[in-house]
């Protein structure tokens, strides 16, 4: 097993009476101070509820946005405290400071089962620099550290990594689940194992493709990134989004797949339009029939049928990145079809964060997936096969 699977969890500790510093990822979208999607808050509730029930004195910490190391009211976590209190059905004290006397006083006032939320840790310039002195000040507030911030686990920051130099560090339930479900899929998948990779650019996901190609039985490529592969196969793709500097890389990946007996599936037809617009005229085009003035904005019906068949035959499926410009209805069919096919899989289905989560929610099939990651960048780095700094610094299980 890899390092990722040998960490300690809440099950390894007795939090009763302890001051427990819980690093969560409450980096939720907000408009004018109103939370527009609280998925990440809900995802952290199991850990918080468990610590409350087991008598911990719960100190919650998170970043919100990128306030550049300065206090900025627009990035205050105060609205998150209110939302947490609604869900937990108990008060959540909010401390306007995340270190120093005010934070210490708030922590000292906490009794067993009570909850405190600290202000945005990125109001300190030292947070993103993983400043040891700031890490020590966070650690001074607590007796135990719980990392439940999978979405920020790819960051080596003071509250996600540095703090573990001073406190025993275990994974929260969300972190544990993210690592267990995705780790099991990567290390010991039920086969056939299929990965579907889409989205805008090959450059963002080249390492993911390389790593997954070693592990999967089928790798399905869609979205804008497929165009670079089609170019590598010698097709003209008109005005489609392409990364010409990656054509040779794409060609090498196609060859690698051929040589290793893996099935790398690429589109065999496309939905093309002459404008990048929701109301653009569009048509189905074979690969050799894309005109100079056209751009590919979705996979075509034949491709959908082939991809659906591959997914239907699979026992483990990981998906990252839409198959087309799913935000526009006319170009959302490929993405919808993949979501539908995944919903019907009798096995493990994992959505690897980012836009694919928005896509799966848009089609109302989120409940039908085994796991939807709360991390975009973090899940990508995990799928690249990297050990995330926030995971690396967790206490090792001895057995
Ligand atoms: N054929 C295409 N041409 C241009 N953009 C595309 C195409 N297919 C998908 N996209 C866009 O890619 C974006 C998502 O890409 P990306 O950020 O890489 O995915 P994720 O967030 O899931 O990792 C979406 O906004 C989508 O509209
Ligand atoms: O929202 C996040 O990343 P994501 O959009 O890649 O999932 C995390 O909270 C990390 O935030 P950051 O990219 O500002 O470090």
From TrEMBL:
Enzymatic reactions:
(2R)-3-phosphoglycerate + ATP = (2R)-3-phospho-glyceroyl phosphate + ADP
Which InterPro entries does its entry note?
A: Phosphoglycerate_kinase (IPR001576), Phosphoglycerate_kinase_CS (IPR015911), Phosphoglycerate_kinase_N (IPR015824), Phosphoglycerate_kinase_sf (IPR036043)
Please state the Enzyme Commission number of this protein.
Answer: 2.7.2.3
Going by the UniProt record, its keywords in alphabetical order are: ATP-binding, Cytoplasm, Glycolysis, Kinase, Nucleotide-binding, Transferase
So where does substrate get bound?
Answer: 25-27, 40, 63-66, 122, 155
Q: In which pathway does it act?
A: Carbohydrate degradation; glycolysis; pyruvate from D-glyceraldehyde 3-phosphate: step 2/5
Biological process (GO) annotations?
Answer: gluconeogenesis; glycolytic process
Q: Which domain of life is it from?
A: Bacteria
Quote the cellular component terms of the Gene Ontology held in the record.
cytosol
Where does this protein hold (2R)-3-phosphoglycerate?
A: 40, 122, 155
Major location (coarse): cytoplasm
Q: Which parts of the sequence bind ATP? A: 205, 327, 353-356
Subcellular location(s) of the protein: Cytoplasm
Molecular functions (GO terms): ADP binding; ATP binding; phosphoglycerate kinase activity
- Quaternary structure note: Monomer.
Q: What HAMAP family does the record point to?
A: Phosphoglyc_kinase
Family note: Belongs to the phosphoglycerate kinase family.
Q: What is this protein called?
A: Phosphoglycerate kinase
Q: Which gene encodes it?
A: pgk
